[in-house]
C-alpha cells in the first residue's frame, strides 16, 4: 500500500492540467445531464462505467424518442474509435500489469494516453503503480466534475446555452498543442482536410461520421510512412 501512496503523490503533479480541464468539462456534462431530468447519481454512474468524454456528451442527445439502440452503438463506436489504436499501441506496456491492465485499457482517454506516452516515470517509483495512479486520478477528476455539474444543474437554475461547447474547446486546445509541439503535422492536416471535404459533400448535419471514417482510413493506410516521418507509436 505504501508503494501506491508514493506513486499517487509522485503522479499527482503531472495530472494537474487534466484536473483543471476535466473538472470544467465534467461540470458541463453534469449540467447537460441534469437538464434532461436525471439524478446526479446517474451522471456519476455514467462517468464511472462509460467514461468516454465526447461519447458522454453525445450520449446526452440519445435520451430522446426516435433514437435506436443500433444508432447509439454505431455513433459511440465511431466517436471513440481512436481508442482502439490507443490500446493497441500500449498492449506491450500493459501486458505485465496483471488484472490492472483491464482498467488501464478502459481508462485510455485522450489526455491520459498523452500522459502515459510522454511522462517520464520517476526513478524511485514503480512504473506500473505510477501509470495506474495517473489513470485512476484522471477518471476521479471527471467523476467529481460530473457530480458537481449535475448537482449544480439541479439546484441552481441558470441558462446553460452553449455549455456543450466545452468539449469542443478542449479538443481545439489539444489540436493546437499538438500542432505547436510536433514536427510531423501530417495527421493534423489529414484530419482538417478530411473534415472539410466531407463537410462540402455531406453538409453540416451529416459530415461527422464520413469524416471520421475517412480520417481512420487515411491514417491506417499511411501509418508506416507517418511513423518514418516522426509520428512514432507510443511505447
TrEMBL record:
Keyword Transmembrane set for record: yes
InterPro entries assigned: Brnchd-chn_aa_trnsp_permease
Entry keyword annotation includes Transport: yes
Membrane topology: Multi-pass membrane protein
Membrane-crossing segments per the record: 12-34, 130-156, 192-221
Subcellular location: Cell membrane
Main subcellular location of this protein, as a coarse class: membrane
Keywords: Cell membrane, Membrane, Transmembrane, Transmembrane helix, Transport
Family listed: Belongs to the AzlC family.
Descriptive protein name: AzlC family ABC transporter permease
Protein species of origin: Claveliimonas monacensis
Amino acid at each position: 500500500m505504501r508503494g501506491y501512496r508514493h506513486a499517487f503523490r509522485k503522479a499527482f503533479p503531472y495530472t494537474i492540467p487534466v484536473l483543471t480541464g476535466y473538472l470544467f468539462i465534467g461540470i458541463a456534462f453534469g449540467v447537460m445531464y441534469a437538464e434532461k431530468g436525471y439524478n446526479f447519481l446517474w451522471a456519476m454512474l455514467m462517468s464511472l462505467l462509460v467514461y468516454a468524454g465526447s461519447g458522454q456528451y453525445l450520449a446526452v442527445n440519445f435520451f430522446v424518442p426516435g433514437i435506436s439502440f443500433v444508432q447509439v452503438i454505431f455513433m459511440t463506436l465511431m466517436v471513440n474509435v481512436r481508442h482502439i489504436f490507443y490500446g493497441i499501441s500500449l498492449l506491450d506496456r500493459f501486458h505485465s500489469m496483471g488484472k490492472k491492465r483491464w482498467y488501464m485499457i478502459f481508462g485510455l482517454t485522450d489526455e491520459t494516453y498523452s500522459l502515459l506516452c510522454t511522462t517520464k516515470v520517476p526513478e524511485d517509483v514503480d512504473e506500473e503503480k505510477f501509470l495506474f495512479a495517473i489513470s485512476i486520478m484522471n477518471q476521479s477528476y471527471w467523476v467529481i466534475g460530473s457530480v458537481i455539474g449535475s448537482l449544480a444543474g439541479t439546484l441552481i437554475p441558470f441558462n446553460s446555452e452553449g455549455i456543450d461547447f466545452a468539449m469542443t474547446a478542449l479538443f481545439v486546445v489539444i489540436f493546437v498543442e499538438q500542432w505547436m509541439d510536433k514536427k510531423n503535422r501530417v495527421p493534423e492536416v489529414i484530419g482538417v482536410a478530411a473534415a472539410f471535404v466531407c463537410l462540402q459533400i455531406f453538409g453540416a448535419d451529416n459530415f461527422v461520421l464520413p469524416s471520421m471514417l475517412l480520417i481512420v482510413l487515411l491514417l491506417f493506410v499511411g501509418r508506416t510512412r507517418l511513423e518514418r516521418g516522426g509520428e512514432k507509436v507510443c511505447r
